[in-house]
Structures are given as structure tokens and as C-alpha cells.
Amino acid sequence: MKRIFIATTLLLLSAATIAAQPRKTCIDHDWRFRYGATADAHLADYDDASWRSLNLPHDWSVETEAATALGDNVGPFSRKSIGTDATGWTVGGEGWYRKHFTLDKADLNHRLLLYFEGIYNHSEVWLNGQQIATCNYGYRPFRVDITPYCRPAGEDNVLAIRVRNEGKNTRWYAGSGIYRHVWLMRTPHLYMDEWETDIHVVGSALTADSPTCRLQASTLLHNDGDRKERRVLEVTVYAPDHRVVATHTERVTMQPHTQQPIIVHLDVAQPQLWAPAHPHRYTATLRLSDGKTDKGDCLDIPFGIRTLQFSATKGFLLNGEPTLLHGGCVHHDNGLLGAAAFDRAETRKLTLLKQNGFNAVRCSHNLPSEHFLDVCDSIGLMVIDECFDQWLVAKNPDDYHNYFAAESNHDVQTMVRRDRRHPSIIMWSIGNEIPGRIEPDGIAAAERLRQQVRTLDTTRPVTAAICDWDQPSHPWRDERDNAFRSLDVGGYNYLYQHYEPDHELHPDRIMYGAESYPKRASENWALVERHPYVIGDFVWTAMDYLGEAGIGSAQFVENGKNGTFFQPWPWMNGWCGDIDLIGEKKPQSYYRDIVWNRRPIAMAVEEPCPQDHYQAISQWGWQREHLSWTYPDVAEGTPLRVNVYAKQRVRLLLNGEPIGEKQPDATFCAAFDVPYHPGTLTAELVDVPRSDSTCIRLQTTGTPVAIRLCTDRTTIDADGNDLAYIIAELIDADGNVVTSDSQRIVHFTTDGDGILLAGSNASPTDMASFRSATPRLFEGRALAILQSKRLNGTGTIRLTVSSDGLPDATISIATEHR
After folding, report:
1. Could you give the CA distance from residue 688 to residue 686 in angstroms, rounded to a whole number?
2. Rounded to whole angstroms, how far apart are CA atoms 328 and 383?
């Protein structure tokens, strides 16, 4: 381990333009799909007229066809799933995609590429009957030059893609299909490459008062033509308010069929620094021209100026300021949408994290989508970008360990090359809980991956997540002394008890909780606040996800029997997130608000445990408690456990009568046993003026009278991809959400210029409601996700929600072409 690791960096990347044609065009629309093995489907003249038409991104594992074909299913879930509880009982298999497209003469004057952001899992790509690419790592983006395979202008080109998600290849829900965007890219034959273009800060750490900073911009020029070319390279830096703040111009001469690296330096005065509280972003434009016209390659690169420093004595400094990582781990799925990476779904997920106190996210355990990182850049979420869950030793027989030796260098380089422009990324993670990591081959693999990263980026530290339960033959001292050899920053999974003793032996080691249990939040965070060498904590997880079914469960178990780690059918999601599957805040998130000083007081009520039972809480679980004082099945006078969370003395009242006062314990919890009587339960801080922030109330709800609809946005893009998320809430006459009517079904119907893409509730066990137009309510709520139709003008989507005995509720979402 280095004593001090200093990193300086910035950036991010977007599409650019070449003359009148876009450099990068999304081709998500108008695909054909067929589930199942299909002979000759790669041939250009294969008749696909009967295939299903769809748009990307697409994940067939959350649709019913695969599970129905396998049998014994409820919706997309089958008891026969080879992934069982790990994949949430969903089904993979084989699927085929085909797309027809034509090119014009202007297209064919360019170098043409297809860019696939993500296909899970094994993909084979054919164009016009010729195989042009394969990919074995379902999270790796890849590009392929299609210029030699394209047909003349105006003729039909046929793209065919075979996707296989077979065997036991994952520990969580991965999804199946072309689940991220596909792009057609055009460049001249003298061009620059986004993945070979980088910008970073040169020199010592910046602070908010720095009068200037020096930037280094680098790229690689390619001349694929047969002639020597002379060009002018212009680099222009624009401030967040679009002012020009730096320029550089130089002449370059390129021999035919050569590459030429370019490095330029630019000085920016009074830099506005990127940070979570103010994610300022600049834009650098790199343009190749003949000096007379604007024709030529051009890249527009948004970026952020910021510096990183890591040390065991000062902790993590962002722009010279001590910064603690309020972190959460996330898998890549988007709940009801499966793995499909719709831009709006990614934006909403990350916005919810930011709104609930997270300033950092760990991509567990694979590369995220491009848009995911763009959003983190724009809203100020720091990122640990992670690559692998396996190296040389299997976790499942069909997982990535089969390809690691041959392909991991390329795959880890792809992560760094694509993502290093993003200011949000603060660390590169080369693995999670890797078996064999302290054997000779594992130690060598870690150092090799580290060197692959450092070849491309020296501005960020290399990390990995280490645990102690997957190496039973090795005591922790072996892990402590060997697993961290090639890491600049050590990630500890569920090992906060080792921070202090490990620091005694390795005083230069920088540590953080790469994963931690929700119910250990206070213990973990106390160490983060106490020791500069512990720079943050990442809870498992920030948001519920599909698969690892029931890992966060809390079950009432008959005395004398044992609880289980994973939960059986019909459990299908992890249920360990701070935020549930439809985006609602769970009790553990309110508790984290107390730990992180985001609110002074919170309260929840535990479900009564049946007689002769006990509550078996998973290590990742949370006790069965609710933000509710409505228990119609509980006899009055029955004692209920009320947990008040705070950092100072609290008072509890029921219907205005004092129940008692308590000082919260070391975990910030004051527990009261309260005889149940309907009414108003009030918790307040003692010896402080009463206000909305120092007092919290739970009200027994009345009879449901209506459904309230709450939308995240009232206007969306009419691009056929954008989404609106609408929560349907069951309310009483006072507007309180009625959580006790768990069997009530709501009916979603839409008309107008959009569709119901998915409906469901947040329940981890209600398979019948998942992606249903008639879901049951859970905790008084259900979610409808609407998707726009593709329009050139404006339109309206209307959602009507009905339920027996209640008036219909209707909401309209405007759509407009932007």
C-alpha cells in the first residue's frame, strides 16, 4: 500500500457531430424479436415478418414468454428456473433480434460502427449474413466496425443478434437480451475516438480558492485513408455558462494508415470545481479541420474539474476538503423493468439515492450504463466503478471465471477507457469477494488488473471488496496481509470490527466499508466519523433489486425452528434496500437519516409477533416495522413495540397522554411497549421547542375513500422511450395513506399517446402483481410506469386507476417532441 495516494481528474463524454450528420445515432427503435433457438436466423434473407416488433432496451426475463415456455410459472417467474432464488426465479434461455436498415451515400462516405452498450449474456452479431462480433461478458460494452460489411446506398442491411443466457452464470438477477442502448456511429476516415480521449487536472490539489488550474487533454488521431493528411486540431474549453475559457490550436500531419497521439495543455482561470454539492461541468470541443471549413471530426466532451487525494492520515479529500462517503451499493436492474436501462429509469433511481442522503454509489458488481454515469456527473453522486464478481475461481459453473484468463485484460481496459472521463468516478474496483484472491494465481491476477488500470489512468486509486467468509481455509491474518497488496484503497465487506486492529498493523492502509448491514449502520458510521483512515461506508443495498430472493427478510418463525438465508418461492427480490422496488422509503432509511444527521427524530412500530414464534432477521434484514399506527387485527390493549430513533432524549405520547421518556441507546433507538389504542401516536424530542422537525406523529387511518395519484413528472419526451412514474395511494378522508388494506386490487388503464409499460407494488413476494395492470396494493401503494409513443408533435397519456367501491382517479401526462 502507498502511504499517500494523490489523484487528479475530471471529465465525461457525450456524442459529437460531423458536419450535418450526427456522429452517434441511437437505433433502439424498430427491432424484431423471437424467443428460442432459431435455425438460420442469422441469414440476411431469413423471413422475420412474423417475429414480434419491439424497441430497445429490452429484457425478456421480466416478460412472461420464457417462463410460460418453461412451465410452472406465475408471470415471469417459474419454479423450474435454473437460477432459482438467486435470479428471483426468472428465466433466461436464447433469444434472437433482427433489425433492417438502409444507409445513404453520405453514410457510406464515413467509417461506420455499431456500438452495443450491453447484451446479456453471450452475444453473436451478424450483418448481412456475416458474423462480425461476439461478446462473452454481458456487462461489457463493445463496438464493431461494420464499414466492410455494409451494402450499397439504399439497399437493405440486416443485423441479426443471437443472445444466450444459459446455465447458472450469476448470483443475482442479470436479465436477458439487448438491455442497453445500441448506436450507429459515423466518423470520417481521419478521426478521433471517444474512448481514447481524456482530460485531467495537472499538478497539485485544487481548492475552491485556486486562481487557476492546468488541464491536460489527450487523444489519438487515426488516419485510415490512403493519403497523407494535414489538419488543424482546435481544442476549445467552455465554462458551465458556455463562455470560452481556454483554447489551443496546432497543425498535425498524418501519414496514411497511422495513429498519432496528441497531448495539449490548457489553463483555466477561476475554475468552478465539481463536487456533490455543486457538480459544475465544463465542455471541451476537439475539432479536426482543414483550416478553411468546419468539415472534419469533432468531439464534444462535457467534463468536471476536481482533484482527489487519499491518505490514512487525512482521509479522502475532494478538492482539498475532507469528504465522507455516504454510500450505497446498487445492482444494475431497474425493478419492474428488469435490466432494461431506460434513461429515465436510471435517472429516477439515482435521483432517489441523492434525495435520501447518499453522496456515493458502488456499481455492484459490474459496469453501469453510460447514462447512469452521466446522471451521476450531473447531480453530484460519486461512483466506485466495478468490473468483476469472479476471477479464476467459479462462483457458479457457467459464470465469468470461464473467460477471465483470456478476456479480463480487455474487459477491465474497456471499463477504464470508456468511463475515465466521468468526474463522478473516484475509484476503480477490480473485483468483489473474489475466491482464490490470496492464492498465488489470485495475487498475480490482482496485480495484473491493477497494472491494466494504471496504464490507462493514474488519477484514481484501485480498490476491491474483500470479505472473510468465502475463504474458510484462511484465517483473517492471511487476508489482512495479502488480499490488499495490489489495492490503493481497501474495501471491507461486513468487516468493520477489523478496521482498528488492521490499522495497528497496517497504519498506511486506507479503508472503507464496501458493503455493510443495514442494522449495523450506527456502528459502521461511528468508525467513519472517528478515524480518518476509514473514508466511508456503503450499505447493502441502497435500493431493492430482483434476485437474491429474501436476503433481507425478517420472518416470524415457530419456536424451535431455524430461519433461512434465502427465502423460498414466492420470494423474488432481495428486500434489503433502503428504498423499495417502486421507489418508496423504507423504515431503515429513516433510521439512516438519524445516523447521518439528516433528521432529528423518526419512529416506526413493529408488527406483533405471533404466539410461540420469534422474529428471525437476516443479517441484511430489518425488523418488521412500519410507519403506521393502524392495526385493525390487533386487540385494543395489546402491547406493541414502538421504536423511536434519535440522538437525544425523547418523549412518547398516545392520544396526548404521556407514555414515557427515554434516552436512546448507543444505536440511537429508544424502544417503548405501548398498549394499542387507535388514535395519534406522537414522538418528540425533550427540552427542545416543538416543531415539524422535532416531533413526529402516526395517525390511525380511517376508511379508504379515494385513490391519490402522484407523478414524478407532468411532461415527458415523445420519443418512444421516456417514462413517467405514477404512484397510486389509497387514502382516507384526511389524506392519510391507508396501509392496512393489503388485498385491494387496483386496475390501471391508459389511453392516448402512450402505454402502460409496467405496473406492480413493492412486495417481495407478490409475483402475481409484478408487471401487472391489476396489482394488489402493498403498504397502501402501487406503481404504474407509463411510456410515451414516438411523435413529431405533442400528445397526452391518460392513466385511469379504479378499485372496487372507490371513485376512479385519472391523471394526464403531456408528451412533446424535443
Report:
1. 6
2. 10
Using alpha carbons, list the distances in angstroms from residue 375 to 248, 283, 350, 380: 29, 16, 7, 8
Q: What is the largest CA-CA distance in the chain?
A: 90
Confidence of residue 444 (pLDDT cuts 50, 70, 90): very high
Cα 387 from Cα 425, distance rounded (Å): 13
As to burial, measured by CB atoms within 10 angstroms (0-12 exposed, 13-18 middle, 19+ buried), residue 641 is middle
Question: What does pLDDT average to over the chain?
Answer: 95
pLDDT in tens, 162-195: 999 999 999 999 999 999 999 999 999 999 999 9
* Residue 578 near residue 549, CB atoms below 8 Å: no
Phi, psi of 699 (to 5 degrees): -115, 130
Q: Which cell numbers in the block locate residue 778?
A: 402493498
| pLDDT at 20 (0 to 100) | 47
* DSSP result, 18-63: ETTEESEEE--SSEEEEES--TTTTSTT---TTSEEE-SS--GGGS
Q: What is the total residue count of the chain?
A: 818
Point out which residues pair with 5 in neighbouring strands. Answer: 310
d(CA 587, CA 396): 34
Look-up of cell digits 466511508: 536
Q: Name 561's Cβ contacts closer than 8 Å, sequence gap at least 6.
A: none
Q: Tell me: the pLDDT tens digits for 711-760?
A: 999 999 999 999 999 999 999 999 999 999 988 999 999 999 999 999 99
Taking 3-state DSSP, the helix, strand and coil percentages for the chain, each rounded to the nearest 5, stand at 15, 40, 45
Reference 176, options 38, 340, 332, 389; nearest CA is 340
- How does strand 669-675 pair with strand 321-322? unpaired
| CA–CA gap between residue 90 and residue 107 (Å, rounded) | 41
Distance, CA of 815 to CA of 299 (rounded, Å): 31
Give the DSSP letter string of 319-348: TTEE--EEEEEE-S--GGGTT---HHHHHH
Q: Which residues of 645-683 are buried (b: 16+ CB within 10 A; e: fewer)?
A: bbeeebbbbbeeeebeebebeeebbbebebebebeebbb
Alpha-carbon span 571 to 581, nearest angstrom:
13
Query: What global pTM score does this model have?
Result: 0.95
Do residues 407 and 414 touch, judged by C-beta distance below 8 A?
Answer: no
Residue type, 676: Y
Q: Determine how many CB atoms are found less than 10 A away from the CB of residue 42.
A: 21
Q: For residue 490, list its beta bridge partners.
A: 464, 511
8 Å CB contact between 160 and 179: no
Task: Compute the average pLDDT of residues 620-626.
Answer: 97
List, for residues 571-584, the tens digit of each pLDDT value. 999 999 999 999 99
C-alpha 483: how far from its chain's center?
Answer: 27
Is the backbone peptide bond immediately before 570 cis, with ω within 30 degrees of 0? yes
3-class DSSP string for 632-647: CCCCCCCEEEEEEEEC
Q: Which residues contact 439 (CB under 8 A, 6 or more apart)?
A: none
- Structure confidence at residue 12 as a pLDDT band (50, 70, 90): very low
Rounded Cα distance, 585 and 600, in Å: 17
Q: In what order do the strands lie in the sheet with 130-135?
A: 52-54, 31-35, 93-101, 157-165, 122-127, 130-135
Say which residues have a Cβ less than 8 Å from residue 699's Cβ, sequence separation at least 6: 629, 679, 680, 681, 734, 736
DSSP 109-122: TSEEEEEES--BSE
For 459, other C-beta atoms within 10 Å of its C-beta total 18
Mode of pairing for the β-strands spanning 315-318 and 321-322: antiparallel
In the block, residue with C-alpha cell 433510521:
591
Taking residues 462-480, report their average pLDDT. Answer: 84
The residues that bridge with 97 in the sheet, in sequence order, are 33, 161
